[in-house]
Amino acid sequence: MLDLDSAKDILYKAEKQNPGKWVKHSLNVAEAAKRLANELNLDTNRAYIYGLLHDIGRIYKGIGVKHIIDGYHYMNELGHPDIARYCLTHTFFIKDVKSSCCLWDIIDKEAYEIQEYLDTHEYDLYDKIIQIADCIGDTESFVTIERRLIDVHLRKGVNENTIMTWNAIFKLQAELEELLGSSIYSIFPEVKMEIEKKLVKDYLTLK
Ligand SMILES: [Fe+2]
Predict the structure, then answer these.
(1) 25 CA from centroid of ligand 1 (Å)
(2) Collapsed DSSP state (helix, strand, coil) of residue 118
(3) How many C-beta neighbours within 10 Å does residue 130 have?
(4) Burial class (CB in 10 A: 0-12, 13-18, 19+), 86
(5) 34-74: per-residue pLDDT in tens?
(6) CA-based torsion, 16, 74, 83, 183: positive or negative
(7) How many whole angstroms from 139 Cα to the centroid of ligand 1?
(8) Is the model's pTM score more than 0.90?
(9) Which CATH class is domain 4-203?
């Protein structure tokens, strides 16, 4: 397993190649994953590293589904298939490559590769916490999943899969809350502060 310092080196090297808000987002996703892992008696160090590198495919500047397959290939090339896994699964709440709400910027060969992976791997709890952590961690702090989804879709639009994906996301939240025995936000007190301090015009891109 990759150690934390090496994981950070990989992230910051990628930031040099493609600077952007995605790096701060990755740090918040890592922290969110760590807290969830702690509550669920999983390995917090592993969860943090998976969160830190889930979007590492952005090193190649792909903005849609491409960053998913690029991250999967990149971490495999670096010799870390255990981390490559989360680069691929984090956006597929439904195990259908066509279900992604991301921009479709991959070729057929890449789509087949993603689908084959999804068909042959069962999700574990780490897949699930990285998926939810990705919804809670934004670039500055932690937010409600509803707020983050609205922010993303006001900026990027919706497609025919959006409602189906939202259903899957909230079902996953419910599943994790069942395991936690509490609201998912009980371990993210920052969410309350974010809601109280931020005006909607400072949060959403209103046209
Ligand atoms: Fe992400």
Answers:
(1) 7
(2) helix
(3) 27
(4) buried
(5) 999 999 999 999 999 999 999 999 999 988 899 999 999 99
(6) positive
(7) 10
(8) yes
(9) mainly alpha
